[in-house]
């Protein structure tokens, strides 16, 4: 199986239409169709079902899509990490969602910088759901994530802390006068549907809530009374500052029945670089958790 063929199949699966995939790939539709048929014959399985509206994945097609993405991520990662080794020898790229675990991140970076022979650490601030993909495709060498991880991603990790969950509500909402709320109470607010986070691959879940891409957008939509959300406490630290002259802002309330999120430092399990290992050792020391 060639890398080119996998990229063809992923494009078709993501577009749901052979014609649109051909435009995305910059090739004509007939050779793309022939390549798909050749893959199906080679694998001895139908990967796609042709429909009047386009194509749909079969069960073998879903497996092949997942495995193709993992293989292509590995190819991209090899190229990115090799280029980085040339451009910034020894540097470690740490991915973290903007606003997440800021206090923990600061302690980790300070402790690492004080370690003899520590590698330079470049921060990659990611959008919602993009830190783990950044590890797989080589944009990052290590990442701060919340459990659970994608079991198919081949990542190792150590636990470095935990975070409580809080509810973000419009500042003038009656629930903001409470010391704590429940998950059910927030979910039952009819005029404040939960936000829909755009995933890194561009997909968007269905629902009545507003589309959100980052924490700034979320806080503004909450302040305007368009949504309510449950987020890690560290993500809410800047939210109360978004207040205007007429009192619109964000109220932060503890969620009493939500289990804390486990924060981990994760990295690809194969061929761990010395700089990553040293950063992991520092994280274990800072957190007080045995590796």
TrEMBL record:
Transcription regulation keyword on record: yes
Secretion signal span: none
UniProt entry tagged with the keyword DNA-binding: yes
SUPFAM superfamilies: Periplasmic binding protein-like II, Winged helix' DNA-binding domain
Protein name: LysR family transcriptional regulator
Pfam families named among the record's database cross-references: HTH_1 (PF00126), LysR_substrate (PF03466)
InterPro entries tied to this protein: LysR_HTH_N, LysR_subst-bd, WH-like_DNA-bd_sf, WH_DNA-bd_sf
Sections of the chain in a coiled coil: none
Record keywords, A-Z: DNA-binding, Transcription, Transcription regulation
Family: Belongs to the LysR transcriptional regulatory family.
Residue ranges constituting the HTH lysR-type domain according to the UniProt record: 1-58
